[in-house]
Amino acid sequence: MDPLGAPSHFVDIDSLPVWADQLVTSQPVGEKQVDVHSPFPCRKDINAKIILWRGDVALLNCTAIVNTSNEALADKNPVSESIYMHAGPDLRAELQKLKGCRTGEAKLTKGYNLAARFIIHTVGPKYKSRYRTAAESSLYSCYRNILQLAMEHAIASIGFCVINTVKRGYPLADATHIALRTVRRFLEVHGEALEKVVFAVSDVEEAVYQKMLPLYFPRSLEEEIQSLAFLPADIGNAQGEPVVPERQIRISEKPGVSEDNSDEEGLEADLSFIGSHAFARMEGDVDKQRRLILQGQLSEAALQKQHQRNYNRWLCRARAEDLSDIASLKALYQTGVDNCGRTVMAVVGRNIPVTIIDMEKALLYFIHVMDHIVVKEYVIVYFHTLTNAYNHLDSDFLKKLFDIVDFKYKRNLKALYFVHPTFRSKVSTWFFTTFTISSLKDKVHHVENLQQLFTAIPPEQIDFPPFVLEYDTRVEYYRQSPGICEP
C-alpha cells in the first residue's frame, strides 16, 4: 500500500508524461506555410492536460474513470471485468439500482475499492455501416455526456477507456476521430473544468491514438500544418458533434401554417434540436426546387445554400475515401507564397494520366487538398510542360469542377499561371474562359518561361519538378542561340 492507502499497482496520473512534453519529430515549417492553420490549432495549455497511457483504465488514480458497457450495465468485456474486479462487489449492487443505461447516455457511480473516486458508465452504439451516421451521433453523445457529467460533479481528472467493444464493432480509427475531437472541443470551452484527461489504451489502440492525436492536439505549428491533410471531412461543429448535411432539417415555428417564401425557406439546412412539441420539416420537393431554378424563381441566397450543401457532400466524400493513389501522382501540392504573400498551389499536368485514372477521385482529391487553402487568397501555377494528349483535362471536367467547388475557391483565386503553354493550349484556354467560365478570363496568365514566372513568384518559393527546370533551361538555350536547332 502507498501512503495514501491505495494499492501499489494503481497508477498516479501525475507521474505520467503529458502530451505536450512528448517528442515532436515533425519537419520544420517554411515561411511559405506560416499563414496556413488547422481548425485545431496548437494549444499548449490544452496539450498539457492530455495524457496517452498504455494500460488498464481501472488502475488509474484520478477523480473518475470511464467504463464501457451494454444497456444492462452488465457487459463482460475486458474493461468492465477489470473495473468490477478492482472495485469490489458493492459496485455491482449499485449498478443494479441504476436500471440500465441507454446508448449514448452516461451514468455515475462510486469507485469503491478503485483509486478513482467515481466511475462514469456509458454505452457505445452497435456499428453497422448502413447506419453509420446514427452510430457517429451516438458515440459523440457518449463522450459529450461523460464530459458534461464530469463538469457537473466538479471532477478534476478523468481516465477514458476506448468506448467500444468487440461485440459493438465500431471501427477503431473512426471512433478515435470522434473521441479526440469531442474532448478537444470541450477543453477549448471548458478547459478550466478539467485538469487532466487520460486516454487509457491497449497496444493496438495506442498506435492509432499516437497517429491521430497530432491532428487534434498538435504540439507545434509544424505538426499543425503537416496534420491538415489527414483530417477527415467531418470535423464536427463547435462541440465536435458530427455534421451530416443530408440529414439537416429545420423546425417550423408554426406547424401546419403555411409560411411566406416557403419554397426558398425549404432550402435552409440549419441544424436544430427537436423539442417535444416541435415539428420537423424536411427540405422541400427536390424536383420542384430544380424546376424553380430553371424558371429563375429562386433567390440568390437560396441558390447559394443549395450549392453549399452540394459542396459539403463532396467534401465529406473527399475526406472519407482512400485517395492515396491520386496523392501518389504528385500532381497537386502546396509550395510557397507569391510576392503578395498569397499561397501558391502547383499543378503538374504531366503527372495527370487522364485516360487511366478515376477522374471523379481526382476531383475529390482536389477538394480534399484545397478546402483549407482557399479560405485565404491563393494562386495556382499550372505546369503544362511536356504534357501530351493523355494528360489534358477536358473542358467538361473543368466545368464540373468549377460548378462544384465552394464560392471561396472562385473569390480567393487571384491568378492562374499557365506555364509553358502551346499554341493549341492557348486557343483552348481562350475558348474555355470566353464561352464557358468567363470569370476566369482575367485571372489566367500565360507564362512562356520561368523567368517570367519569377516576376510574380520568387524562385525559392516554388518547388519545381526536375523535368520542368530541364525543359525550361533547354528551350531558353536554343532560343538564345538561333543558329542551333533544337534536337
Automatic annotation (TrEMBL):
PANTHER family referenced in this protein's UniProt entry, alphabetically: GANGLIOSIDE INDUCED DIFFERENTIATION ASSOCIATED PROTEIN 2-RELATED, GANGLIOSIDE-INDUCED DIFFERENTIATION-ASSOCIATED PROTEIN 2
Signal peptide residues are none
CDD domains reported for this sequence: Macro_GDAP2-like (cd02905), SEC14 (cd00170)
What Pfam families would the database entry show?
CRAL_TRIO_2 (PF13716), Macro (PF01661)
Q: What is this protein called?
A: Ganglioside induced differentiation associated protein 2
UniProt lists the family membership as follows: Belongs to the GDAP2 family.
Specify the Macro domain's residue ranges.
37-217
